[in-house]
Amino acid sequence: MSGRTNGILPLLALSLLFTGGAGLRTAEAADPAAGQAVFHSQCAICHSVQTGRNMIGPSLFGLVGRKTGSEAGYHYSTANQNSNLTWTPDELDKYLESPRTVIPGTKMTYAGEKDAAKRADLIAYLETLK
Ligand code: HEC
Questions:
Q1: Ligand 1 pocket, 36 CB below 6 A?
Q2: Which residues touch 34 (CB under 8 Å, ≥6 apart)?
Q3: How many CB atoms lie within 10 A of CB 11?
Q4: Are 117 and 26 in contact (CB under 8 A)?
Q5: How large is the C-alpha radius of gyration of the chain?
Q6: How far is ligand 1, taken at its centre, from the CA of residue 59, in Å?
Q7: What is the pLDDT of residue 105?
Q8: Which residue of 24, 54, 69, 122 has the lowest C-beta tally within 10 Å?
Q9: What is the best residue among 38, 39, 40, 46 to mutate for testing ligand 1's pocket, by most ligand atoms within 8 Å of CB?
């Protein structure tokens, strides 16, 4: 019995270590290559990263630093068009966690990414698109 308990403790310590590692990665080194993979699995079905190529959603080329609703030739919802935000990394982090909280009435039907490390990677990738 006590042998069993002793076996579980190191495992617990190990899983704590892993959680700590993920937290550190978010704060210190977001990985654009990992973010590109997230983009391909979660965003590419609706968004292109080629300049001027609008699909179901607007092109995300040059996104970081531009105003909401400013991609030429894309027909935005009035909610997105009038939200008057600038896509800074901070604003994107909030939006990508829960789009409908930041822009109520958006026509983007993406539920959001709850994993902060994945969002950080994704935003690091979006920052390379310029
Ligand atoms: C199901 C399709 C769909 C998916 C999946 C999707 N989007 Fe969107 N996205 C849209 C649509 C449609 C809009 C336009 C929203 C509006 O006008 O209300 C939009 C708008 C946006 C905007 C605002 C752009 C601007 O110029 O103001 C950003 C930023 C964005 N999406 C990022 C992402 C990212 C990053 C992902 C992946 C994590 C993603 N989207 C996934 C359809 C999608």
A1: no
A2: 118, 121, 125
A3: 9
A4: yes
A5: 19
A6: 9
A7: 97
A8: 24
A9: 46
